[in-house]
Automatic annotation (TrEMBL):
UniProt KW Cell wall biogenesis/degradation keyword: no
Source organism: Providencia sneebia DSM 19967
Membrane-spanning intervals of the chain: 51-71
Cross-referenced Pfam families: Phage_coatGP8 (PF19199)
Protein name: Phage coat protein
Length: 78
């Protein structure tokens, strides 16, 4: 009996929190000042740009390590 009451209370609290939390999140989003939102967006765009610039470097480094490993493997067989 007590377990079923606890489980019903738990289920009810989950339902209430699933309704209340998104509403609170929307209210919090609308209370952020526009300059702060612009700054966060700018930081995100800068980070994306840096990541885009880093991919060719990462590819070259990995390719270099693979070439060195392959060269060592071939030179040891000779």
């Amino acid at each position: 009996m007590l377990k079923s009451i606890k489980s019903k209370l738990f289920a009810a609290s989950i339902v209430v929190s699933s309704v209340v939390l998104p509403t609170v999140a929307l209210a919090a989003e609308s209370s952020i000042p526009q300059p702060a939102q612009d700054a966060i967006t700018s930081i995100g765009e800068t980070a994306t740009g840096m990541i885009d610039l880093a991919w060719p470097v990462i590819a070259l480094v990995v390719g270099g390590f693979l070439a060195i490993k392959l060269f060592k493997k071939v030179s040891n067989k000779v």
